[in-house]
Amino acid sequence: MTCTYEISGKRTADLLREGRGLLLDLVDRAEVRDAAAAWTGRVNTVTARTDRVDVDALLIRPDGCVAWALPTGQDLEATTLVRALGAWFGQPA
After folding, report:
1. Rounded to 5 degrees, what angle do the CA atoms 4, 6, 10 make?
2. 68 close to 32: Cβ distance less than 8 angstroms
């Protein structure tokens, strides 16, 4: 799935240009950002607003593919996000 979001005047492709992963927190959920904190050296985290209503957060690989998604309103099971981060971006530093 390829998604294009306008985030503070930038598209997701612009945010991926650095070749790092991107965690989009679409509804300002601190627990999502906290779960990914150990990967800040490899994954950029951006809190953004969107018209999209089916997900609260997305982990996007540097090639633009979605590696993980948190459906709207679902409780975060941090282990699934941590597993996806580890699989795509290695163990935390």
Report:
1. 105
2. no
Alpha-carbon span 22 to 43, nearest angstrom:
5
Q: Does pLDDT of 8 surpass 70?
A: no
Bridge partners for 70 per DSSP: 57
Q: Quick one: which of 71, 62, 28, 31 has its CA closest to 44?
A: 62
The answer to whether residue 1 scores a pLDDT higher than 60 is: no
Query: Which pLDDT tens digit goes with each residue over 44-53?
Result: 998 887 777 7
Please check whether residue 56 is in contact with residue 71, taking contact to mean a CB–CB distance below 8 angstroms.
yes
- The residue among 62, 32, 82 whose CA lies nearest residue 24 is 32
H helical segments located in the chain: 12-16, 30-35, 78-89
